Amino acid sequence: PAAGTVFNILEQEVEPTVSWQAIEGAKAYELLVYRQGDTKTAIKRVETSSGTTSVSLKELKTGQFTWTVQAIDRVQRRGIASSERSLSITYGDPLPAPEVLSPEVQ
After folding, report:
1. Which residue from 17, 69, 22, 20 is spatially nearest to 47, judged by alpha carbons?
2. pLDDT, tens digit, 9 for 90 and up, residues 13-26
3. N or C end of the chain, less CB within 10 A?
4. What is the rounded distance in angstroms from the CA atom of residue 67 to the CA atom of residue 3?
5. For 31-37, which contacts have Cβ atoms below 8 Å and span 24 or more sequence positions?
6. How far is it, in rounded angstroms, from Cα 75 to Cα 96?
7. 74-89 pLDDT, tens digit each
8. Residue 91 backbone class (left: φ over 0; alpha: ψ -120 to 50; beta: rest)
9. Is residue 4 very low, low, confident or very high in pLDDT (cuts 50, 70, 90)?
10. How many Å is the Cα radius of gyration of the chain?
C-alpha cells in the first residue's frame, strides 16, 4: 500500500495486506513489521517463498505500524532492506451514544 495507508477494518471488507515488487534472483523475502516508533523489536516477522510478494496483516490489532522487506538469495544472504513504510489499522470512530428518551425505570 501507499505510505501512510489507513485500513479501516470495520468499514472496508479488505484485510490489511502489504506487497512489494519481485526482485530477480530472490529465493525468499523477509518482512518485518514494527509498532511505529519502535524499530528495534519486530512484532511480526515473515519469511516467504520467492513467488510470494504480499503478506496479510489481518492478525494485527489497531495501531500505527512501520514495515520493511528485503530479498534473500539462494545462499541465504539478505539484500538491502526497502525503505520504511507506514500504515495504520483502525476500527473507525465509535458508535454514538444512544439518545435517552425517558428517565423512567420500567
Report:
1. 69
2. 778 889 999 999 99
3. C
4. 10
5. 31/55, 31/67, 31/68, 31/69, 32/67, 32/68, 32/69, 32/81, 33/57, 33/60, 33/65, 33/66, 33/67, 34/65, 34/66, 34/67, 35/63, 35/64, 35/65, 36/63, 36/64, 36/65, 36/66, 36/86
6. 56
7. 999 999 999 999 988 8
8. alpha
9. low
10. 19
Q: Are strands 63-72 and 28-35 parallel, antiparallel or unpaired?
A: antiparallel
Question: Using CA atoms, how far apart are residues 24 and 2, in angstroms rounded to an integer?
Answer: 23
Residue 39 pLDDT: 83
The Cα angle at residue 61 between residues 98 and 88, in degrees rounded to 5: 90
**84 is written with which cell numbers?**
520504511
Cell numbers 503478506 correspond to what residue? 55
